[in-house]
Amino acid sequence: MREEGEGYDDRRDEGRRVTRAAVHAASGGRLGAAHPRQEGPTDLRLVPPALAAWATSAVMLDAAPAWVTGTAVGCLVLAAVLMTLRVGRARRVPGAMTGGRSGWPAVTAAAVLVCVAAAAVSAGLHGADLRRGPLPGLAERYATVIAETEITSDPRLVRPRVRGPAPAPTAVLFEADVRRVETRDGATMVTRTPVLMVVDVERRRPSSSAFSASSAGDRPSPWLALLPSTRVRVTARVVPPADGGGMAAVLRVRDPKVPEVVGEPSAAQRLAGRLRAGLREATDGLAPDARALLPGLVVGDTARITPELDEAFKETDLAHTLAVSGSNLTILLVLLVGPPGLAQRVERRGLAPRLGISLRTTALLGGALTLGFVIVCRPDPSVLRAAACGAVALLALATGRRRSLIPALATAVLLLVLYDPWLSRSYGFLLSVLATGALLTLAPRWSAALRARRVPPRLAEALAAAAAAQALCAPVVAVLSARVSLVAVPCNLLVEFAIAPATVLGFAALATAPWAMPVAKALAWCAGWPAGWIADVARTGAALPGAGVDWPGSWTGAALLALATVALLLAGRRLLRHPWWCGACGVLLLLAVVQPPPLTRVVTGWPPPGWRFAMCDVGQGDATVLAAGAGTGVVVDAGPDPVLVDRCLRTLGITRIPLVVLTHFHADHVAGLPGVLRGRQVGAIETTTYQEPVDQAEFVRREAAARGVPVTRAAAGEERRTGGLSWRVVWPPADPAVVPEGPNDASVALLVRSAGLRLLLLGDLEPPAQRALLRSPAGPLLGGVDVLKVAHHGSAYQDPGLLSRAAPRLALISAGADNTYGHPAPGTVAALRAMGAVVLSTDRDGALAVTGAGAELGVAGD
Predict the structure, then answer these.
(1) Which of 211, 220, 283, 480 has the largest CB neighbor count within 10 A?
(2) Residues above pLDDT 70, as percent of the chain
(3) Residue 264 contacts by C-beta under 8 Å, 6 or more apart in sequence?
(4) Pairwise CA distance, residues 492 & 469, whole Å
């Protein structure tokens, strides 16, 4: 009998091998392609507990202790009742505990209740941490204290967007734990309270205000060199947090030149800092975009990302590439383990099997890689989610049990919200989970549907992944940005193939930099090509006139967008049956996004044919264009936003700029210069002689030098001509002894002639300079102009004498909607209208374009 049984076992094993071979053969010849029945139905039992714990954590963070206790106890009692009933039924019905799935609803409900109880307790304790200790009371009094803090995050240099003549002060932000507090009355308290530390850093200005050949910018603040786990002693003002967010208070630190370090960082953080610094050094010689992007793409180091580049990534929904996420860890694990579908087969790939490493040892190496990944890239929400998913998958690999990635994602979410309940309120964590869920649920089905319609497999997979992630994440992104990107899917498709090589080569440079910097530089140079491509795609997509549409930035708007997405998907399923209709819709969408100027002019009437002068709508700032021939224009000022001025110039069809005139160096006139220079032939840049503010003058010089554009200075009496356009500089005076009272009074003022049309452009001149201009040799020339670009955004500070002398027929004002400066001033508008001028402003009328001359003088808005 024993021999017969053994023979049966041998035949059964042989049959299993034959069955596995048949399954592999049925997979279409692709290694690792799983048979549809091989995995079985998706196991969703962990999804309800994870979602319940997530929701409970978000609610209970602010709950009173009584509510937390009541919720936890009530859920545990209900779970015990359910399990008692389940056990009782099992005793009455033999086999009920093991027979079928009839009892799983009760078990799942009990699991949900237990997870809710655990989440309530964890969230209650974390929420109570913010209310305990001395800091909340000190914050209410806005007290000044001496605090010993342990830094828990990388420093972030915050460069606020331009909203006036000068950017807001630059600040360095940390997350930190306060360990000890000393008040002014000498009291010392020991605590451990999470805070946000804001260090207002000074700008390190060059010693000379004159233009020089040097291109060195501001020196970096020493606060940016601090590593997590470093302890520093600061004198700070304690203020309440704006929106909670897991912080008990905000410490506002006035920048001492050097931070007072009282505790060195840990060995692990020193190693991580050395690696990150090595990567930055290895990328120093790359092109500006690749130099800025590669550290962010590899380890989330975004210190070099300019506001302009950051805005381009947000406009195209590529910001996820700047935040280290699961894709980075997946690329590294696939490099080690190979494709997940082959991990437990003899034909598995990756470096580990090639080196003869066993499966369990591979899992241990993967775990070590995951831990190192978290340390080097920092434990941000997306990194933690990726690491948790990777750890669960590696555990399944080590134990020899295959599991679906959806339970792995649910397990990761459950563990993370229990460990850090504040993640339940993190938009970054929400977007990360939604994107991963889209890739695991919607993308495979959409990919199969596309392949069924003869779309190439790899293109189908990439298109389905980008579309699925966009469909689920777009409503949340709309809440954050009040905008919906129309170029997100194509931009994500175009960068997809570049992310993997940039990440792998970047990590290789990171690993080799401390020991072989020349090799690291070579690897970084190779990685710079795909990184540069990603930046080019972001910039190009963001610059398209129809790159996005405004959308209500609320959860109501998110719900409307979700409904619109569902409707679009339902309509898309029908359209896929009609290729010609699909092609027509694709062409219409392309035209709506690109908006070629000839077509736009026909459809919208903007810009009007034969326009002579255009005032771009760039918010609170100035950017104007003088037409000088087909595709050619003289640009006067660049506004505060590179994206907006670039979009305006594209709409106007400007590709050649013989001269850019920057009237003065306030940020609302020069910060958009990169958008003017992008992709256009620029002959020269002309500026005022007064080189203040120094940091903005330095910025202009750096941008010009990077593109090889010469910089000259304007002076009264200078005359120029290009095509049918001519102009005379009437201010500032050439006499160096005349020192203006400030940058506004040093503005370059132009008297322009364009085929019989006379225009006076006054920059931001204020009354003292306006009166001096009237008394200057150019004063008699200023009378009876056709168009006046009103000085200083139409502010109340205008000289009545100059307005009377100019007596414009048309007065144009550039101002931002709902600006806090009160521009344009009602008194100025009334005075101009009393003189018989037609007054228009960009805050109400949008972009403006002047046409005709004499009796045919006209103006059109977009």
Answers:
(1) 283
(2) 81
(3) 230, 231, 270
(4) 10
Tokens of 705: 């030098």
Query: SS3 of 86, please?
Result: helix
- Tokens 């109501």 map to which residue? 556
Q: Does the structure show a pLDDT above 70 at 381?
A: no
Amino acid of residue 284? D
Residue 637 sits at φ, ψ, to 5 deg, of: 75, 155
Q: How far apart are CA 254 and CA 702, in angstroms?
A: 29
The answer to whether residues 533 and 364 touch, using CB atoms and an 8 Å cutoff, is no
Which residues contact residue 521 at a Cβ distance below 8 angstroms, ignoring those fewer than 6 apart?
282, 285, 509
Place of tokens 């024993």: 2
Give the model's confidence band at 232: pLDDT under 50 very low, under 70 low, under 90 confident, else very high.
very high
Report if pTM > 0.85.
no
Look at the block and give the residue holding tokens 């053994």: 6
Q: Which of 136-150, 318-332, 453-467 has the lowest mean pLDDT?
A: 318-332
Residues 6+ apart with CB under 8 A from 808: 760, 785, 786, 787, 788, 832, 835, 837
Structure tokens that stand for 194 in this block: 């999470």
CB 840 within 8 A of CB 850: no
- Nearest Cα neighbor of 654 from 602, 614, 698, 687 is 614
Q: Which residues contact 579 (CB under 8 A, 6 or more apart)?
A: none
* Contacts with 787 (C-beta within 8 Å, 6 or more apart), sequence order: 613, 757, 758, 759, 760, 808, 809, 810, 811, 812, 850
Task: Give the β-pairing of 548-550 and 757-761.
Answer: unpaired
Which residues lie across from 687 on neighbouring strands? 662, 713
- Helix locations, 267-358, DSSP H: 267-282, 288-299, 307-315, 326-337, 351-354
227 — pLDDT class (breaks 50, 70, 90):
confident
The angle, 0 to 180 degrees and rounded to 10, between the axes of the packed helices 267-282 and 517-543 is 70
Contacts of residue 31, Cβ cutoff 8 Å, sequence gap at least 6: 342, 347, 349
Q: Evaluate whether 541 touches 590 at the Cβ level (below 8 Å).
A: no
Q: Kindly report the CA angle at 212 between 208 and 214, in degrees rounded to 5?
A: 100
Starting from the edge strand earliest in sequence, which strands make up the sheet with 810-813, in order? 719-722, 725-731, 749-754, 757-761, 787-789, 810-813, 838-841
**pLDDT given at position 552:** 85
CA distance 316 to 591: 17
Q: What is the pLDDT of residues 687-725, one digit of tens each?
A: 998 888 888 898 899 889 988 899 999 888 888 998 889
CA proximity to 816, closest of 642, 677, 649, 641: 641
Confidence of residue 216 (pLDDT cuts 50, 70, 90): very low
* Contact partners, residue 678, CB within 8 Å, separation at least 6: 539, 543, 642, 646
pLDDT, residue 736, reads 66
Q: Is the pLDDT of residue 800 over 60?
A: yes
Q: Where are the beta strands (DSSP E) in 356-495?
A: 483-485
Q: What whole-number distance in Å separates Cα of residue 668 and Cα of residue 645?
A: 12
Percent of residues, the chain, with pLDDT higher than 90: 20
d(CA 294, CA 531): 6
Spatial separation of the C-alpha atoms in residues 676 and 642, rounded to whole Å? 7
The pLDDT of residue 525 is 93
**How does pLDDT run across 390-399, given as a tens digit for each residue?**
666 565 555 5
Residue 202 has a pLDDT of: 59
